[in-house]
């Protein structure tokens, strides 16, 4: 198997080293693991691409590259240049330092990398490690992902839904719970949740020269969410597996609103 890996924490991030181990296990002795990751941290860039300026790509070693761009840029660089002789069989993005459950998924560069791969028609999975009090005391805070990552991916590859409609291919978002590997209770396929009563915000800061700056800040990561969602099962010690696609349409509302404007005079014939 030929696997491409990327992340949003940067080429030197410890979670990327964990993903390299997982990918090597999946690829097997006859496979290949290609790494194309941001030169610097790109957390929170979502599905951003460097559309308005060029992106430098540097070869660090055999099948290992760094770019000055986002995770989505890294995937594009790999598919259109670095691996142009043949696409990967699988794209993995992560392992993110911190969860991408709930509303975090909307901001995640880790998910942005997987989404770009899916838009290019490739099987893709984003992986993130939830952190908390129980992981803070571990020698390896990524041990849940390191121990269970390959098995969960293998199960998805063998039995997951990899169908693709005319426009948008499915990809998967995996979050490992904030517990030691031995305390993981299993895995659950669940929908994306939303932490109640918490949002991203900013912390304003005035520099010594009087200029105004701000730091973006997330809300409480242990805030409750609806049952049977990624946040809820993660907090209960389960790995969450969430099928996603890049279609942001609310299909339920679309069906209900189909005839909403049929009797409204809009356009050239309006008075």
TrEMBL record:
Q: Which UniProt keywords apply?
A: Cytoplasm, Hydrolase, Metal-binding, Nucleotide-binding
State where the protein is found.
Answer: Cytoplasm
Signal peptide positions are: none
Instruction: Write down how the cofactor binds this protein.
Output: Binds 1 divalent metal cation per subunit.
Q: Ranges for the Survival protein SurE-like phosphatase/nucleotidase domain?
A: 3-196
What organism is listed for this UniProt entry? Paracoccus haematequi
Location (main, coarse)? cytoplasm
Q: What is this protein called?
A: 5'-nucleotidase SurE
Q: Say which family it is in.
A: Belongs to the SurE nucleotidase family.
């Amino acid at each position: 198997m030929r696997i491409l890996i990327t992340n949003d924490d940067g080429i030197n991030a410890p979670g990327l080293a964990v993903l390299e181990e997982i990918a090597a296990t999946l690829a097997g002795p006859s496979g290949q693991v290609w790494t194309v990751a941001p030169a610097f941290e790109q957390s929170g860039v979502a599905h951003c691409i460097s559309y308005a300026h060029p992106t430098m790509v540097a070869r660090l070693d055999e099948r290992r590259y760094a770019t000055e761009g986002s995770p989505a840029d890294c995937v594009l660089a790999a598919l259109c240049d670095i691996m142009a002789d043949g696409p990967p069989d699988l794209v993995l993005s992560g392992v993110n330092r911190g969860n991408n459950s709930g509303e975090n998924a909307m901001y995640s560069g880790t998910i942005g990398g997987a989404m770009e791969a899916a838009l290019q028609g490739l099987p893709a999975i984003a992986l993130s490690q939830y952190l908390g009090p129980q992981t803070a005391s571990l020698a390896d805070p990524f041990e849940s992902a390191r121990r269970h990552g390959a098995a969960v991916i293998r199960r998805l590859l063998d039995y997951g839904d990899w169908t693709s409609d005319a426009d948008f291919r499915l990809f998967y978002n995996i979050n490992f719970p904030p517990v030691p590997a031995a305390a993981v209770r299993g895995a659950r396929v669940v929908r994306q949740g939303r932490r109640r009563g918490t949002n991203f915000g900013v912390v304003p800061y005035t520099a010594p020269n009087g200029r105004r700056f701000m730091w973006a800040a997330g809300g409480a990561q242990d805030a409750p969410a609806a049952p049977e969602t990624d946040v809820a099962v993660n907090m209960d010690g389960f790995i969450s597996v969430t099928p996603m696609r890049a279609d942001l349409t609310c299909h339920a509302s679309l069906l209900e609103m189909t005839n909403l404007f049929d009797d409204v005079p809009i356009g050239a014939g309006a008075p």
